[in-house]
Amino acid sequence: MTDAVRSAYRERAGEYTEALGSLSAMAEGDRNFIAGWARDIDGPTIDAGCGPGHWTKFLHDHGVAVEGIDMVSEFIDGAAARFPEVPFRVATLEALPADDAALAGILSWYSLIHTPPADVPALLTEFARCIRSEGTLLLGFFEGGQIEAFGHAVVTAYYWPVPLMQDELAAAGFEIVETHTRVDPGQRPHAAIIARRRSWIR
Ligand SMILES: C[S@@+](CC[C@H](N)C(=O)[O-])C[C@H]1O[C@@H](n2cnc3c(N)ncnc32)[C@H](O)[C@@H]1O
Protein backbone atom coordinates (compact mmCIF):
# COMPACT_ATOMS: atom_id res chain seq x y z
CA MET A 1 0.00 0.00 0.00
CA THR A 2 2.86 2.41 0.76
CA ASP A 3 4.04 2.02 -2.84
CA ALA A 4 0.55 2.75 -4.16
CA VAL A 5 0.30 5.89 -1.98
CA ARG A 6 3.77 7.04 -3.04
CA SER A 7 3.00 6.58 -6.75
CA ALA A 8 -0.37 8.30 -6.47
CA TYR A 9 1.12 11.37 -4.73
CA ARG A 10 4.11 11.37 -7.09
CA GLU A 11 1.79 11.81 -10.04
CA ARG A 12 -0.24 14.54 -8.38
CA ALA A 13 2.26 16.37 -6.18
CA GLY A 14 2.15 19.53 -8.34
CA GLU A 15 -1.63 19.58 -8.50
CA TYR A 16 -1.92 18.88 -4.74
CA THR A 17 0.53 21.67 -3.91
CA GLU A 18 -1.37 24.08 -6.16
CA ALA A 19 -4.71 23.27 -4.52
CA LEU A 20 -3.77 22.63 -0.89
CA GLY A 21 -0.16 23.69 -0.39
CA SER A 22 -0.73 27.12 1.09
CA LEU A 23 -1.91 28.37 4.46
CA SER A 24 -4.58 30.53 2.84
CA ALA A 25 -6.25 27.30 1.66
CA MET A 26 -6.32 25.96 5.24
CA ALA A 27 -9.17 26.44 7.71
CA GLU A 28 -8.64 29.19 10.25
CA GLY A 29 -9.58 26.74 13.02
CA ASP A 30 -6.72 24.47 11.96
CA ARG A 31 -4.23 27.31 11.86
CA ASN A 32 -5.26 28.33 15.37
CA PHE A 33 -5.19 24.76 16.71
CA ILE A 34 -1.73 24.04 15.27
CA ALA A 35 -0.40 27.43 16.42
CA GLY A 36 -1.68 26.75 19.94
CA TRP A 37 0.08 23.37 19.97
CA ALA A 38 3.27 24.96 18.61
CA ARG A 39 3.40 27.44 21.48
CA ASP A 40 4.06 24.59 23.93
CA ILE A 41 6.70 22.83 21.82
CA ASP A 42 10.26 23.26 23.04
CA GLY A 43 12.70 21.18 21.06
CA PRO A 44 13.22 19.25 17.83
CA THR A 45 10.04 18.46 15.95
CA ILE A 46 9.15 16.55 12.80
CA ASP A 47 6.31 17.34 10.41
CA ALA A 48 5.72 13.70 9.46
CA GLY A 49 4.22 13.35 5.99
CA CYS A 50 4.64 17.07 5.31
CA GLY A 51 3.53 16.96 1.66
CA PRO A 52 3.92 20.48 0.20
CA GLY A 53 5.53 21.69 3.45
CA HIS A 54 3.24 24.64 4.20
CA TRP A 55 2.59 23.43 7.76
CA THR A 56 6.34 22.88 8.25
CA LYS A 57 6.93 26.48 7.22
CA PHE A 58 4.09 27.57 9.53
CA LEU A 59 5.72 25.79 12.50
CA HIS A 60 9.13 27.21 11.56
CA ASP A 61 7.62 30.70 11.54
CA HIS A 62 6.19 30.01 15.00
CA GLY A 63 9.67 29.35 16.35
CA VAL A 64 9.59 25.54 16.24
CA ALA A 65 12.84 23.71 15.33
CA VAL A 66 11.03 21.62 12.74
CA GLU A 67 12.03 19.37 9.87
CA GLY A 68 9.55 18.21 7.24
CA ILE A 69 9.75 14.62 6.04
CA ASP A 70 7.81 12.82 3.35
CA MET A 71 8.31 9.69 1.27
CA VAL A 72 7.47 11.56 -1.95
CA SER A 73 10.62 13.24 -3.28
CA GLU A 74 8.56 15.53 -5.54
CA PHE A 75 6.98 17.06 -2.41
CA ILE A 76 10.33 17.38 -0.64
CA ASP A 77 12.01 18.98 -3.66
CA GLY A 78 9.11 21.40 -4.08
CA ALA A 79 8.99 22.27 -0.37
CA ALA A 80 12.75 22.86 -0.24
CA ALA A 81 12.50 25.18 -3.25
CA ARG A 82 9.53 27.12 -1.85
CA PHE A 83 10.84 27.34 1.72
CA PRO A 84 14.66 27.25 1.52
CA GLU A 85 15.03 28.35 5.15
CA VAL A 86 13.24 25.19 6.39
CA PRO A 87 14.88 21.72 6.49
CA PHE A 88 13.16 18.92 4.56
CA ARG A 89 14.19 15.38 3.69
CA VAL A 90 12.84 12.23 2.11
CA ALA A 91 12.00 9.69 4.82
CA THR A 92 9.16 7.39 5.82
CA LEU A 93 6.78 7.28 8.75
CA GLU A 94 7.81 3.66 9.28
CA ALA A 95 11.39 4.71 10.12
CA LEU A 96 11.50 8.35 11.19
CA PRO A 97 14.93 9.99 11.07
CA ALA A 98 15.13 10.49 14.85
CA ASP A 99 16.78 8.69 17.78
CA ASP A 100 14.71 7.27 20.59
CA ALA A 101 13.09 10.03 22.69
CA ALA A 102 14.82 12.71 20.61
CA LEU A 103 11.78 14.78 19.66
CA ALA A 104 9.67 17.32 21.52
CA GLY A 105 6.87 16.96 19.02
CA ILE A 106 5.50 15.34 15.88
CA LEU A 107 2.86 16.83 13.62
CA SER A 108 1.06 14.13 11.64
CA TRP A 109 -1.44 16.21 9.74
CA TYR A 110 -3.51 13.87 7.60
CA SER A 111 -0.45 11.71 6.96
CA LEU A 112 -1.99 8.49 8.38
CA ILE A 113 -5.21 8.80 6.39
CA HIS A 114 -4.07 6.41 3.66
CA THR A 115 -2.46 3.89 6.00
CA PRO A 116 -4.34 0.58 6.11
CA PRO A 117 -5.98 0.61 9.55
CA ALA A 118 -4.16 -2.55 10.67
CA ASP A 119 -0.84 -0.72 10.11
CA VAL A 120 -1.74 2.42 12.08
CA PRO A 121 -0.70 1.01 15.51
CA ALA A 122 2.84 0.34 14.27
CA LEU A 123 3.18 3.92 13.01
CA LEU A 124 1.88 5.37 16.28
CA THR A 125 4.43 3.17 18.08
CA GLU A 126 7.14 4.58 15.83
CA PHE A 127 5.98 8.11 16.72
CA ALA A 128 6.05 7.15 20.42
CA ARG A 129 9.61 5.79 20.05
CA CYS A 130 10.83 9.16 18.81
CA ILE A 131 9.00 11.48 21.22
CA ARG A 132 10.53 12.18 24.61
CA SER A 133 8.54 11.93 27.84
CA GLU A 134 5.97 14.71 27.99
CA GLY A 135 6.52 15.54 24.31
CA THR A 136 3.40 15.69 22.15
CA LEU A 137 1.92 14.39 18.95
CA LEU A 138 -0.69 16.32 16.98
CA LEU A 139 -2.68 14.01 14.75
CA GLY A 140 -5.18 15.26 12.16
CA PHE A 141 -7.52 12.88 10.31
CA PHE A 142 -10.97 12.33 8.81
CA GLU A 143 -13.51 11.44 11.46
CA GLY A 144 -16.20 8.82 10.92
CA GLY A 145 -18.61 6.62 12.83
CA GLN A 146 -16.55 3.55 11.98
CA ILE A 147 -13.24 2.70 10.39
CA GLU A 148 -14.18 2.84 6.75
CA ALA A 149 -12.39 3.27 3.43
CA PHE A 150 -13.46 5.95 0.98
CA GLY A 151 -12.36 7.17 -2.42
CA HIS A 152 -10.09 10.10 -1.57
CA ALA A 153 -9.15 12.28 -4.58
CA VAL A 154 -5.57 10.96 -4.57
CA VAL A 155 -5.83 7.38 -3.30
CA THR A 156 -7.99 5.34 -0.89
CA ALA A 157 -8.22 6.86 2.59
CA TYR A 158 -9.94 5.87 5.83
CA TYR A 159 -12.32 7.46 8.30
CA TRP A 160 -11.54 6.81 11.96
CA PRO A 161 -13.86 7.20 14.98
CA VAL A 162 -12.23 9.46 17.57
CA PRO A 163 -12.61 6.94 20.46
CA LEU A 164 -10.87 4.21 18.45
CA MET A 165 -8.00 6.52 17.50
CA GLN A 166 -7.73 7.56 21.16
CA ASP A 167 -7.52 3.87 22.13
CA GLU A 168 -4.74 3.28 19.59
CA LEU A 169 -2.85 6.29 20.91
CA ALA A 170 -3.17 5.03 24.48
CA ALA A 171 -1.93 1.58 23.43
CA ALA A 172 1.09 3.19 21.74
CA GLY A 173 2.08 5.06 24.91
CA PHE A 174 0.23 8.36 24.73
CA GLU A 175 -2.32 10.09 26.93
CA ILE A 176 -4.93 12.33 25.34
CA VAL A 177 -4.53 16.03 26.04
CA GLU A 178 -7.12 17.59 23.75
CA THR A 179 -9.49 16.53 20.98
CA HIS A 180 -11.08 18.83 18.46
CA THR A 181 -13.73 17.91 15.89
CA ARG A 182 -15.38 20.02 13.23
CA VAL A 183 -17.58 19.65 10.19
CA ASP A 184 -17.23 22.44 7.65
CA PRO A 185 -19.91 22.80 4.96
CA GLY A 186 -19.11 20.58 1.99
CA GLN A 187 -16.13 18.99 3.75
CA ARG A 188 -15.58 15.59 5.32
CA PRO A 189 -15.69 15.57 9.15
CA HIS A 190 -12.37 16.53 10.68
CA ALA A 191 -10.69 15.50 13.92
CA ALA A 192 -7.46 16.54 15.58
CA ILE A 193 -5.97 15.06 18.73
CA ILE A 194 -3.08 16.30 20.82
CA ALA A 195 -1.55 13.39 22.74
CA ARG A 196 1.30 13.45 25.26
CA ARG A 197 3.99 10.78 25.40
CA ARG A 198 3.69 9.00 28.74
CA SER A 199 6.81 8.86 30.84
CA TRP A 200 9.41 6.42 29.58
CA ILE A 201 10.01 5.35 33.17
CA ARG A 202 6.92 3.76 34.69
C1 LIG B 1 -3.06 13.92 2.69
S1 LIG B 1 -1.35 14.24 2.46
C2 LIG B 1 -1.04 15.41 3.77
C3 LIG B 1 0.15 16.25 3.49
C4 LIG B 1 0.36 17.42 4.47
N1 LIG B 1 0.56 16.94 5.82
C5 LIG B 1 -0.82 18.34 4.39
O1 LIG B 1 -1.47 18.57 5.43
O2 LIG B 1 -1.10 18.85 3.31
C6 LIG B 1 -0.57 12.75 3.08
C7 LIG B 1 0.93 12.85 3.02
O3 LIG B 1 1.50 11.80 3.79
C8 LIG B 1 2.57 11.24 3.08
N2 LIG B 1 2.72 9.85 3.52
C9 LIG B 1 1.75 8.90 3.58
N3 LIG B 1 2.25 7.75 4.03
C10 LIG B 1 3.57 7.96 4.26
C11 LIG B 1 4.63 7.14 4.74
N4 LIG B 1 4.42 5.86 5.07
N5 LIG B 1 5.86 7.69 4.87
C12 LIG B 1 6.07 9.00 4.53
N6 LIG B 1 5.11 9.82 4.05
C13 LIG B 1 3.88 9.32 3.93
C14 LIG B 1 2.16 11.35 1.62
O4 LIG B 1 3.26 11.25 0.75
C15 LIG B 1 1.50 12.71 1.62
O5 LIG B 1 2.44 13.73 1.39
TrEMBL record:
Matching InterPro entries, A to Z? Methyltransf_25, SAM-dependent_MTases_sf
A Pfam family the protein falls into: Methyltransf_25
**Could you list the residue ranges forming a coiled coil in this record?**
none
Q: Which UniProt keywords apply?
A: Methyltransferase, Transferase
Q: State one molecular function term (GO).
A: methyltransferase activity
What top-level branch of life does the organism fall under? Bacteria
Give all residue intervals belonging to the Methyltransferase domain.
Answer: 47-135
A GO term (biological process) for this protein?
methylation
* Protein name, per record: SAM-dependent methyltransferase
State the species of origin: Mycetocola zhujimingii
